[in-house]
């Protein structure tokens, strides 16, 4: 009798437990559904800054800036880049005023100058870097085109193969070239457009070779294979020259920065240290210093710029 009572109680508790478990799972399902809808609605909501940025990205000014950002290989939208510039300007201004005790008006002007110089340097460095990567890919491009023509493919098919197999930035450039050729644009016009975008001596030689072989015919495989070997040798020679002149190039950048940094540090230690700079003699000395610094920078760059 006792065993039967215990068994009956256990079955009853099991039924009650299952009932509450099913009820809990139903409530949990409804709660997850409400939470999911809440977050979906939250994704649709955008802040005022994001809306302003989206509207700015649709303007003509933003479209021109977007083209420049793409050419410089900077993965920012125009609104994001403008926001980065504003934040950078505020950071430079804060450092000059609070750490170097530069007068506010001078700091405002100096921050603008430093920001503009940094922006121009960033664009130039990114463009040069992208162009250099593409030039370094030229030997592989020549070999791939040579092997494709040797296997019986046409030059247009070889260009499509390069667009498929090569890494960036050659991938996107040759993809655009292949797309233009597929639309029926003349080979000479398409290759000259590519040449204008790259604007490099090695690439000019490459495009000239393709144009001559396209018009005159001949053994394109032998020409491209020889060019790939020549470009590899030029690449090694340039790397050796770059290693030998690296110290002098860094000196050209460090020499102008050290005295400016020391003057700002002294102004932070000694109150009014920069006041003498804005007197008559101070302006003359500053002009001499600026001219000498610029001349030194240009001379060092001229000496270390060895053309191969």
Architecture overview:
This protein is mostly helical and 308 residues long. It has a domain at 131-235: Type II secretion system (T2SS), domain F (Receptor-associated Protein). It contains 11 helices and no strands. The longest helix has 50 residues, at 220-269. It is flat and about 75 Å long. The mean pLDDT is 81. It is found in: Cell membrane.
Keywords:
308 residues, Receptor-associated Protein, 11 helices, 84% helix, 0% strand, membrane, Membrane protein, transmembrane
List the helices and strands and how they pair.
Elements: H1 2-44, H2 48-57, H3 60-71, H4 78-98, H5 104-150, H6 155-165, H7 170-182, H8 187-198, H9 201-216, H10 220-269, H11 280-304
Helix pairs in contact: 4-5, 5-6, 5-10, 6-7, 7-8, 8-9, 9-10, 10-11
Percent range of helical residues: over 70%
Superfamily (CATH H level) name of the domain at 131-235: Type II secretion system (T2SS), domain F
Distance between the termini: 105 Å
Major sheet details: none
Mean pLDDT: 81
Kindly name the structural category: mainly alpha
């Amino acid at each position: 009798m006792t065993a039967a009572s215990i068994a009956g109680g256990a079955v009853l508790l099991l039924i009650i437990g299952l009932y509450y478990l099913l009820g809990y799972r139903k409530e949990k399902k409804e709660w997850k559904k409400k939470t999911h809808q809440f977050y979906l609605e939250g994704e649709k909501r955008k802040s005022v800054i994001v809306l302003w940025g989206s509207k700015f990205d649709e303007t003509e000014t933003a479209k021109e800036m977007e083209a420049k950002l793409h050419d410089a290989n900077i993965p920012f939208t125009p609104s994001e880049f403008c926001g980065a510039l504003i934040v950078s300007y505020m950071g430079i201004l804060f450092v000059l005023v609070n750490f170097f005790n530069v007068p506010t008006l001078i700091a405002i002007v100096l921050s603008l100058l430093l920001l503009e110089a940094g922006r121009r340097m960033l664009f130039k460095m990114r463009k040069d870097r992208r162009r250099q990567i593409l030039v370094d890919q030229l030997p592989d491009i020549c070999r791939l085109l040579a092997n494709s023509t040797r296997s019986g493919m046409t030059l247009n098919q070889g260009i499509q193969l390069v667009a498929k197999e090569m890494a960036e930035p050659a991938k996107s450039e040759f993809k655009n070239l292949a797309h233009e050729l597929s639309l029926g644009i003349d080979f000479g016009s398409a290759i000259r457009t590519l040449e204008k975008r790259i604007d490099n001596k090695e690439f000019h030689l490459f495009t000239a070779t393709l144009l001559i072989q396209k018009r005159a015919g001949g053994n394109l495989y032998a020409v491209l294979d020889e060019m790939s070997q020549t470009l590899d040798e030029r690449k090694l020679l340039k790397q050796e020259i770059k290693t030998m002149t690296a110290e002098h190039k860094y000196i050209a950048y460090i020499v102008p920065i050290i005295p400016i940094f020391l003057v700002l540090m002294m102004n932070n230690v000694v109150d009014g240290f920069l006041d003498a700079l804005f007197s008559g003699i101070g302006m003359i000395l500053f002009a001499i210093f600026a001219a000498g610094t610029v001349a030194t920078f240009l001379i060092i760059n001229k000496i270390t710029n060895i053309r191969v």
